[in-house]
Amino acid sequence: MKKTVTLLIIAAIMLCGCSRGSTEQPVSSTEAASTAAATEMPETTTAPAQVAETTTEAPEERDPALDLSLKDMFVNLNVAAKNGKYMGEEFPELYDRYMTALKATGREAEWEKLCCTASAILDFAETPAKKIFADYNFWIYDNNVTGDHYSEISKSVYNGIGEEFREKFYTEGCSIGYPALLWMPEEYDEYMSGGYFTNISPEDKKYVRVLLIDESESIISDKNNTNGRNFFFDPMSYDVRGVSESDWFDESVHKEALGSLRNRAKLICNILESSHASRIFKFVATPSDADIILRFDCRNYKQENYSDGANIVTLNYTGFYLTAANNHTGETASVSFEYGDSPESVNIPVSGARYGAIEAPYPIMQGTDKAEQFAKTLATWFAE
Question: What is the pLDDT of residues 195-218, one digit of tens each?
Answer without folding.
Answer: 888 888 888 889 999 999 999 876
